[in-house]
Amino acid sequence: MDNLMLDSIDATTHLDQLEAEAIYIIREVAAECENPVMLYSIGKDSSVMLHLALKAFYPEKPPFPFLHIDTTWKFKEMTEFRDRKAEELGIKMLVHSNQEGIEQGINPFDHGSAYTDIMKTQALKQGLDKYGFTAAFGGGRRDEEKSRAKERIFSFRNKNHAWDPKNQRPEMWKLFNTRINKGESIRVFPISNWTEKDIWQYIRRENIDIVPLYFAKERPVVNRDGQMIMVDDERMKLQPGEKVEMAKMRFRTLGCYPLTGGAASEADTLDAIIEETLGAVSSERTTRVIDQEEAGSMERRKREGYF
Amino acid sequence: MKSLLKFITCGSVDDGKSTLIGHMLYEAKLLFADQERALELDSRLGSRGGKIDYSLLLDGLLAEREQGITIDVAYRYFTTDHRSFIVADTPGHEEYTRNMAVGASFADLAVILVDATKGIITQTKRHTRICALMGIKHLVLAVNKMDLVGFDTDKFDAIKEEFARITTEFQFESIQVIPVSATEGDNITTKSPNTPWYKGLALLPYLENVEVHASDDVKPFMMPIQRVCRPDHTFRGFQGQIEAGSIAVGDELITLPSHEKAKVKRILVTDQDRNSAHAGQPVTIQLDREVDVSRGCVFTKDNQLQEADGFSSTILWMDDSVLTPGKDVLVKVGTKILPGTVTAIKHKIDINTGNTVTADQLVKNELATCEISLSDGIVFDSFEKNKSIGGFILIDRVTNMTSACGVIEEALQSSDREDRNDSEVTRDVRAQQKGQQPLTIWLSGQTDNTALAKEVEKRLVARGYHTMLVDNSLGESVRQLAGYARLLNDAGLLALVPAGSTNGNDQAIAQEIIGQAFLPIEAGASIEEAAKEIVKRVVKALIPDSYSI
């Protein structure tokens, strides 16, 4: 053996502990669940999840496919990134969109919350049912939103993909219960215990590739309700009085471009992003328009099957 | 690098747990500005008339906001200059004890709250016991609402003393008792001027400094196998997380339960080659020879683990259904899952006193010592020595619910076990295992009704009953037939006896031998109709309360 090889005698850090916990969970699912899939949203949390899956099984490739629910309104740079990563890593990337929704012209400008339901929630249920997945990994974190803070790591869903917060299975030690009956499924959140700060520090430590939209750059934007919305293609509908301007800005979370607010920023390196995040004055979900509704909206949506 | 402390808060409904944590985060300026704004906004609708209601930070679920109590475990994350924290706020109400146990199973330390105006109550004792059961070694007793007792040192000392008394039976490594006021902020982040007599640290500084990680690295090496990694025919590695001790390339391992020896050829810590690895790390280990190892097996260095196909244990029953001996379950220990049976409830443990009480059944939230037998041998250790292969869960085979969690005390030799001991395993245990009441269906009335009995049996089996037809072709006596039937009933089965033209006196003899499981039926003419009618009567007889026909 190479003498220069490191002995891992160094103390286990906070990030090592979180990484070990996530890898343990991912391996348990691969070992016990019949037909697992990892949901891939192209965001930074998904990039971390993908990275963890690669590390968990090395030198084997992850023994399950990845599934992207494409609303068709993602940033162009996101879909390009998705296709490039799948090709580079040799992983199986499935893409599903709600065809009925597309045919009916459902869009984020005219259909509001119905858009989220049809193009995300329904599309996700369709995608999972289409391939008969029994377990789906998601990148949800408990620090993101109050109802997520109470969700188990292995979150049981009934035949309609619904979550029952009052009747969650007890989750003891690391003894995860993956048993389900036909038609039921489990959502698994390996990075439940990570915070946004942990995600960024891990991305830096592991040198993980992320979508360039996270880095500050001059982009065409309109100012809407105090948030910068990027004009990513010609489908963007401007409201009266709105003007497209160039601004140096970046995104803290990524989703559908008309629903994802960015903020003015000079942070164009990972260190600068971390610096900005550590001193953050608002938690990341304020830039997601979906969460600006009344308290409890996310819990309601989750009960209906939203991830 | 900073270390991580996982802790829980527990106490009774009105002790103010959520308020305590909410206040700690708020005071320590650990909230994002928008969360703070939302909190102030929410508080306008809250219970403190415009003053900040810190508990709103944690009580996230709609039902909780409506009822004003914490139902499930809520996890919160914060970092100070000294430490990273994950805190699980657990429900205090008795109905949600299992959720508290979930929180406790994940934590290194527990902050137990008591109300200074009420002192130690039943729930304090119960929560202490659950913390001990789930393996927590470090406690903080936060005596809250000290402002309401005028920061009375006598009140505080009395509570402290009583707590010391109730914790003597457990093996906690450290206990700190701190006087606090969660709503007013005394001794939360800084020492309060109201308690000059308290010499210890305030709560947050205490949590930043308490040492909870006894060194797992010095224990003997142990790793349960999660999966075998075989990307191609040239590579075979065993993946898992090292739970205790350390391992280096060249070390000799013992594989359990196959008891083979092999040397470590290569160690991958995630995707990196390493010369050695230690407790807590996810690894892939390659050995220098072929071994018979799959998921659920265990690697050790000096084998001090136990192997058996049964063990005694303490369990917390968490299911809505009632547990009775004979219950079939799935048992998960470490990475091994296999069928098993709860063969005996030795005794219940009173959560308040710790006293043992004889019991033949368990309901939700009850603790008991139980014996569990397994369909095959497993590798395990006592929970005290190795949490990861000493704790287990029981899964209901029908509903798939996690019905119980438990800790292994000791191995049971097959000969000790109740399921091998006739005087202990009763007819009821065997019947319970089959989910039915034993019954003897005594068919009389035709010269030969074997064909009818066969038809009835077919229909009962189709309905899921466990049956046995007694062959009456060799001219056995009534006593012999009844003796067979009784034996079958003892085995928990429904016995079908085509008794032919037996008379009333014969039936009295049979009844005496068979007892209350005796169900005499006078068969009709057509097999088809008679069978249908008989099955109807049998099923009716099997429904409790209509047993006496």
From TrEMBL, chain A:
It is an enzyme of class 2 (transferase). The keyword Zinc-finger does not apply. Its EC number is 2.7.7.4. This is Sulfate adenylyltransferase subunit 2. InterPro entries: PAPS_reduct_dom, Rossmann-like_a/b/a_fold, SO4_adenylTrfase_ssu, Sulfate_adenylyltrnsfr_sub2. Keywords: ATP-binding, Nucleotide-binding, Nucleotidyltransferase, Transferase. Residues 285-307 are annotated as: Disordered. Coiled coil: none annotated. NCBIfam families: CysD, PRK05253.1, PRK12563.1. Heterodimer composed of CysD, the smaller subunit, and CysN. GO terms for molecular function: nucleotidyltransferase activity. The keyword Cytoplasm does not apply. Pathway: Sulfur metabolism; hydrogen sulfide biosynthesis; sulfite from sulfate: step 1/3. Residues 35-261 form the Phosphoadenosine phosphosulphate reductase domain.
TrEMBL record, chain B:
GO terms for molecular function: kinase activity. Residues 2-216 form the Tr-type G domain. The keyword Transferase applies. Residues 413-432 are annotated as: Disordered. The keyword Endoplasmic reticulum does not apply. CDD domains: CysN_ATPS (cd04166), CysN_NodQ_II (cd03695), CysN_NoDQ_III (cd04095). PROSITE patterns: G_TR_1 (PS00301), G_TR_2 (PS51722). Keywords: ATP-binding, GTP-binding, Kinase, Nucleotide-binding, Nucleotidyltransferase, Transferase. PANTHER family: TRANSLATION FACTOR (PTHR23115). This is sulfate adenylyltransferase. It comes from Paenibacillus glycanilyticus.
